[in-house]
Design a protein that fits this description.
By secondary structure, this protein is mainly α. It folds into 4 domains: 111 residues, Glutathione S-transferase Yfyf (Class Pi), Chain A, domain 2 (Up-down Bundle); 59 residues, no CATH class; 179 residues, Neurolysin, domain 3; 190 residues, Collagenase (Catalytic Domain). It has 26 helices and 10 strands. The longest helix is centred in the middle third of the chain and has 36 residues. Bound molecules: zinc ion. Pfam families: Peptidase_M3.
């Protein structure tokens, strides 16, 4: 394990050393006895060596080093990518397929690496290669511009304090004060969402909704059209029917048709619940208008639910239907008890043993727990300058090091932002923090259980510069963690994670029931909206304009028109004319044609947990899960892993049961 805390000068020397090691490995590949094995070893070693850069960028304690490491990440990303876009490397690897592979895993690595290179254009020659490269560069520049426009947007919508009636006082300091009791609401999630949830005035919410759906439209609207055209041209140049075909080819779904079939089945299953929920919201709206909780000013159709009503109505609905007192629940989840409980839970069910290395040298900050065998670190608490979300970062991939002649063991870290205890007061976690920690620790166990002998098959995602997208399929990456999230809704498990921090009592039964009930608020509306975005994403990346999907009767002349037609097909309240949320959809650049991976993962993860339904602590199923789902990494297709674990193909039934949808078939 290399040192993980670097100074700014060390960032520079490490980056240069990694870049040189990769270019040297590529240049010498033609003289290697086994080019695939040589490339895998060089790539895995470079990946492991880059851990210090990633950790310093995300969590370093020195601001200069952090800045240097963040800049170095882009350089490293290009250096790792250059391996897979190099036509000379492709030619050497292709020639090496004349000799038989050592075993099944090497055979899979060979085909995965070559398929990855074909997707990136390394197999093209002459003017075809130049044309593809030109398109790749244009797409890269345009998507960066799209993101920069979005990140740099400072639009805020101004209202008088009267127009903001209903918004909690605690939100006002986050708004921009414009004097004379006037405030501007920035179109960022922490201010936009609560204002839409609380402002009583329909006119206020409608104005805000319109602004949010026009955000960056002038700059990003034309960019969306140009990016779609360039992605389509590149997909054609690479031999795919469309960008959607190219992207799904590396997912468990393999083809857009499989996604359409799933979306159709879930949309139909959700329909009765969706319609009942909309009717309930119509009634709730009338009640709120009558008692002054909602003011239908500028509302030509007060009897209908508009898109700008949804946030407020869903919040009210949740408050009325599922009363869970967050503060009361917190008292049962003291942070150190939760951490110990979650680790013990994973040890018990999966037959693992975690051992704290008490006298290991300091990692990068005193808060960070020290490594054990297959190393993991817990960097759980917020600090100035640290990564501000929650995630797991792989540090060293699992791979066979042909130079050292030994297997390198995987390691990973949780970058968390949990509530931190102080010497005088315990830290009490909100329920969602417990939920998140169980989820993130699932990624740790997934990463650490890997037995992959090729670094591409180890658990990784785009937070590290060496992730290629041809490892664990993107629509499977979250499945194990999502499946294990179900634990926090099982009384037997909750009893192991928390007790009242003063009395030691277990969480009361009725609180557990309320937490389970509050898990899915208006799932019909939630999943219908998710399907709408997935469908828009897939259809617009399948060719056109016109953007067509005949089974839904869709033929749209523009993205704006496509949004309106998909909403109409699914029965969602229509968007306002001359708006287009795609212009401010951050997934447009990072998740192109794969937004559906959320839905695909949820269906598979609900199904996986069915084998724990009778006993969430079942060790026999735990060891099967470890063996069949976690340990293979990407050495087996996820669809095959799931079929082996379930002893049948994945079905939507468990997902439907969990959210109360009706199944017309078991497709
Ligand atoms: Zn996750």
């Amino acid at each position: 394990m290399p040192r993980l805390s670097l100074t700014a000068p060390e960032v520079a020397t490490t980056t240069a050393a990694i870049t040189t090691s990769l270019t040297t490995a590529c240049a010498n590949l033609s003289t290697a006895t086994n080019p695939f094995s040589a490339l895998a070893t060089a790539y895995g070693s470079a990946a492991a060596a880059s851990a210090g850069i990633t950790v310093t960028a995300l969590a370093g304690t020195d601001a200069d080093a952090r800045r240097a490491a963040n800049a170095a990440r882009a350089t490293l990303r290009n250096a790792f990518d250059a391996v897979w876009t190099d036509p000379d490397v492709y030619a050497v690897l292709l020639a090496a397929t004349d000799t038989p592979p050592a075993d099944e895993e090497e055979a899979r690595f060979r085909s995965s690496a070559l398929a990855l290179m074909l997707r990136l254009g390394a197999g093209l020659t002459g003017e075809h290669r130049l044309a593809a490269k030109d398109l790749q560069e244009k797409i890269s520049a345009m998507t960066s511009q799209f993101d920069a426009n979005l990140n740099g947007d400072t639009t805020a919508v101004e209202f008088s304090i009267a127009e903001l009636d209903g918004v909690p006082d605690s939100l006002l300091p986050l708004l921009e004060s414009r004097g004379d009791d006037r405030y501007a609401v920035p179109l960022k999630r922490p201010t936009l969402t609560p204002t839409l949830q609380h402002a009583k005035s329909s006119a206020t919410r409608k104005a805000l909704y319109r602004a949010a759906n026009c955000q960056c439209l002038a700059e990003n609207g034309p960019l969306v059209d140009d990016i779609l055209a360039a992605r389509a041209a590149l997909a054609t140049a690479l031999g795919f029917d469309s960008h959607a075909h190219l992207k799904t080819s590396a997912e468990t779904v393999r083809k857009p048709d499989a996604v359409y079939a799933l979306m159709d089945s879930v949309a139909k299953g959700a329909k009765p619940k969706f319609e009942a929920e909309i009717s309930a919201l119509v009634e709730l709206k009338a009640t709120l208008i009558a008692d002054g909780g909602l003011v239908a000013d500028d509302d030509a159709e007060p009897a209908a639910v508009h898109p700008w009503d949804l946030s407020l109505l869903l919040r009210e609905h949740k408050k009325r239907a599922f009363a869970v007192d967050d503060e009361q629940v917190k008292a049962y989840f003291e942070v150190s008890a939760v951490i110990a409980g979650v680790l013990a839970l994973y040890e018990h069910v999966f037959g693992l043993a975690f051992e704290r290395v008490a006298d290991a040298p300091l990692a990068w900050h005193p808060d960070v727990a020290q490594p054990t065998h297959r190393h993991f670190f817990l960097d759980l608490y917020p600090r100035d300058g640290k990564y501000s979300h929650q995630c797991v970062v792989p540090l060293q991939p699992s791979f066979f090091d042909a130079v050292a002649g030994s297997q390198r063991l995987p390691s990973a870290v949780i970058m968390g932002n949990m509530t931190k205890p102080t010497p005088s007061a315990p830290a009490l976690l909100r329920f969602f923090e417990v939920h998140t920690f169980v989820h993130e620790f699932g990624h740790i166990v997934h990463a650490l259980c890997s037995r992959a002998r090729f670094p591409l098959f180890s658990w990784a995602w785009s937070i590290v510069p060496w992730a290629t997208g041809c490892g664990v399929e993107m629509d499977f990456l979250e499945v194990p963690s999502q499946a294990l999230e179900n634990w926090v809704y099982q009384p037997a498990v909750l009893a192991r994670l928390g007790a009242h921090h003063v009395t030691g009592d277990p969480l009361p039964e009725d609180t557990v029931t309320a937490l389970v009930a509050a898990r899915h608020v208006a799932p019909g509306i939630r999943y219908t909206r998710q399907i709408a975005i997935s469908a828009i994403d897939l259809i617009m990346h399948s060719g056109g304009p016109p953007f067509v999907y005949p089974p839904w009767g869709i033929a749209a002349h523009s993205v704006e028109d496509l949004v309106a037609q998909v909403y109409a097909h699914l029965g969602l309240p229509p968007p306002l004319p001359s708006t287009n949320f795609v212009a401010s959809l951050f997934h447009f650049t990072s998740y192109s044609a794969t937004y559906h991976s959320y839905l695909v993962s949820e269906v598979a993860s609900a199904d996986c947990f069915t084998l724990f339904a009778h006993n969430p602590l079942d060790q026999a199923q735990g060891s099967r899960f470890r063996e069949l789902i976690l340990a293979p990494g990407a050495t087996v297709d996820a669809t095959a892993m799931l079929a082996a674990f379930l002893a049948r193909p994945v079905s939507v039934d468990a997902f439907f049961d969990s959210v109360g949808f009706t199944s017309s078939d078991s497709g």
